[in-house]
């Protein structure tokens, strides 16, 4: 008699958006009998998606929006029956504070790299404007496939455009400074245009700028992105082990063994090891480095080269009726100083109440401040009360709004964002090549092909498909 075929066992490490998307897709592909386990070291699923109540509002204190222009999150919401919950920002523009003045962020750029000199003219002094206008005529670029963004932009456009626009825009995405980021991973379209022979950055930006569709660029969920997390947890129907850390990964004759540890005695696992036919690691780079050490050394070493930046989100909920500026928010250039000469603690504010229709309809008025740049912890050293005080003072100076908040929240994200430095795409290729050689192993997450939610969803989905092929023998 042939033994009954055992349903496949797959373990997903990390319950952020990448791991939960993977678990959801695995359930879809492997059916109801598959044993899918999601191991998460904290006491809640979602990772950097975290919706919590502040001042009577549902507030996202991690990621707050997804890029709607990419299909992945929009499609996932539709698949989960949440399409009707999607909402898009008001038409109001965002601003940047640079050189002591707050101005509208210009269109016609790729992350601040102008498609024409005219696009950024309003932001610059006469000298800087002339430098930007001269960029297309500079001698050809010494392009070898990647470059440190800051030095390249400074050499081609000068410091002013780099510091006033590109740096704040990239700081908003990576919590990183332009000088430490690489062009290919942060502006892949521009890199491809250079590969294809663009002879200046202006020409490369013009060739790679997305054609405006007239449709919304961003979206969110009107009950908070936590609703997406809840839906993924439900459809994945996995054995979700919260408060449990995977401490070590081991290759066995039959597959993989995960060695588990508890963060509190209440979470102590019944069995400190979990055996699986396949594993998806959907964890940040430092954890991936540790778990792959000794198992897939080349991938571990590549993960080990990815730095991470820490940040914090400070939510201020102001009394109903508080008037905000008529824009969606403000980014602060790194060198900005307050009237008293001290640096701002915040690097950006989102005027959430103005930006999102569902919040505008609510009574209390939400503003989100972001704090923390890579290698510049600054105000992150302050305790929560002091951080709120500093962020409130920044907000008042920038907007003139002094109303005391009715509620506040501070959410810290230690090592929250990977830094895509020079050569990052090559590092990721090394990770993926090494992992692909290991049957039943896949990786996903923000370290790989973009920190944004659509890119994370794409990696979770791809990892699940790879692993499903392996466990069903269809590889
Ligand atoms: C403050 C902030 C704001 C952001 N805003 C936006 C935004 O508006 N739009 C956008 O598109 N992107 C935004 N991002 C980026 C985006 O949120 C993240 O890149 C994305 O959510 C990462 O998802 P992930 O699943 O790859 O990783 P994570 O969310 O980090 O999930 C990984 C999980 O793995 C767990 N884990 C780690 N090690 C182990 C282990 N050994 N055992 C078990 N579990 C482990 C962690 O606890 C974590 O829950 C923001 C990021 C931050 C920090």
Structural notes for this entry:
With 475 residues, the protein is an alpha+beta fold. It has three domains: 9-49 and 225-306 and 420-472, FAD/NAD(P)-binding domain (3-Layer(bba) Sandwich); 65-92 and 309-417, Protoporphyrinogen oxidase, mitochondrial, domain 2 (Polyamine Oxidase, Chain A, domain 2); 109-206, protoporphyrinogen ix oxidase, domain 3 (Orthogonal Bundle), CATH 1.10.3110.10. Helices cover 34% and strands 22% of the residues. The protein has 16 helices and 22 strands. Helix 1 (17-30) runs parallel beside helix 16 (453-472). The longest helix has 20 residues, at 453-472. The protein is globular. It starts with 8 loop residues before the first strand and ends with a helix. The site of flavin-adenine dinucleotide (FAD) has 36 residues, from helix 1, strand 13, strand 17, strand 21 and helix 16.
Layout of strands and helices, then pairs:
Elements (H helix, E strand, L loop, with lengths): L8 E5 L3 H14 L4 E5 L11 E4 L2 E4 L5 E2 L4 H8 L6 E2 L7 E4 L2 E4 L4 E2 L2 E2 L11 H9 L14 H9 L1 H16 L8 H4 L1 H8 L5 H8 L9 E4 L4 H11 L2 E3 L2 E8 L4 E7 L10 E4 L1 E4 L3 H8 L4 H8 L3 E11 L10 E4 L13 E5 L1 H4 L1 H4 L4 E7 L12 H16 L7 E12 L5 H13 L4 E3 L9 H20 L3
Parallel strand pairs: 1-2, 1-16, 2-12, 7-18, 16-22
Antiparallel strand pairs: 3-4, 5-11, 6-11, 7-8, 9-10, 13-14, 14-15, 17-20, 17-21, 18-19, 19-20
Helix pairs in contact: 1-9, 1-16, 2-16, 4-5, 7-8, 10-11, 11-15
The structure holds flavin-adenine dinucleotide.
């Amino acid at each position: 008699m042939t033994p009954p075929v055992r349903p496949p066992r797959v373990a997903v490490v990390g319950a952020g958006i990448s791991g939960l998307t993977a678990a959801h897709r695995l359930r879809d592909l492997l059916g109801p009998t598959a044993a899918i386990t999601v191991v998460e070291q904290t006491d809640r699923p979602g990772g950097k998606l975290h919706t919590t109540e502040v001042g009577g509002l549902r507030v996202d204190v991690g990621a707050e929006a997804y890029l709607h222009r990419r299909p992945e999150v929009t499609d996932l919401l539709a698949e989960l029956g949440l399409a009707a919950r999607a909402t898009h920002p008001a038409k109001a523009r965002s601003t940047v504070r640079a050189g002591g003045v707050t101005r509208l962020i210009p269109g016609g750029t790729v992350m601040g790299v102008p498609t024409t000199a005219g696009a950024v003219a309003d932001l610059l002094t006469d000298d800087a404007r002339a430098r930007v206008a001269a960029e297309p005529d500079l001698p050809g670029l010494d392009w070898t496939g990647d470059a440190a963004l800051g030095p390249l932009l400074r050499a081609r456009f000068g410091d002013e455009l780099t510091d006033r626009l590109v740096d704040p825009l990239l700081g908003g995405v990576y919590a990183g400074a332009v000088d430490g980021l690489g062009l290919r991973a942060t502006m892949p379209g521009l890199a491809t245009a250079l590969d294809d022979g663009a002879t200046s950055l202006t020409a490369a930006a013009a060739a790679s700028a997305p054609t405006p569709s007239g449709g919304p660029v961003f979206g969110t969920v009107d009950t908070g992105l936590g609703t997406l997390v809840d839906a993924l947890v439900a459809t994945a129907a996995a054995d979700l082990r919260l408060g449990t850390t995977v401490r070590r990964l081991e290759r066995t004759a039959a597959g993989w063994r995960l060695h588990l540890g508890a963060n509190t005695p209440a979470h102590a696992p019944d069995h400190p090891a979990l055996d699986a036919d396949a594993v998806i690691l959907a964890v940040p780079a430092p954890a991936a480095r540790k778990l792959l050490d000794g198992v897939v050394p080349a991938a571990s070493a590549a993960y080990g080269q990815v730095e991470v930046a820490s940040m914090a989100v400070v939510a201020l909920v102001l009394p109903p009726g508080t008037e905000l500026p008529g824009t969606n928010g403000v980014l602060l250039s790194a060198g900005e100083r307050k009237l008293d000469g001290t640096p701002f603690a915040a690097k950006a504010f989102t005027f959430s109440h103005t930006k999102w229709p569902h919040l505008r309809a609510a009574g209390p008025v939400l503003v989100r401040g972001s704090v923390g740049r890579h290698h510049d912890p600054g105000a992150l050293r302050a305790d929560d009360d002091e951080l709120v005080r500093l962020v409130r003072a920044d907000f008042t100076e920038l907007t003139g709004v002094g109303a005391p908040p009715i509620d506040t929240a501070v959410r810290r994200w230690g090592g929250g964002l990977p830094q895509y430095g020079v050569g990052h795409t090559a590092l990721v290729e090394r990770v993926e090549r090494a992992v692909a050689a290991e049957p039943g192993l896949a990786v996903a997450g923000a370290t790989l092909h973009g920190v944004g939610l659509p890119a994370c969803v794409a990696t979770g989905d791809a990892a699940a498909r790879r692993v499903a092929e392996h466990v069903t023998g269809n590889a």
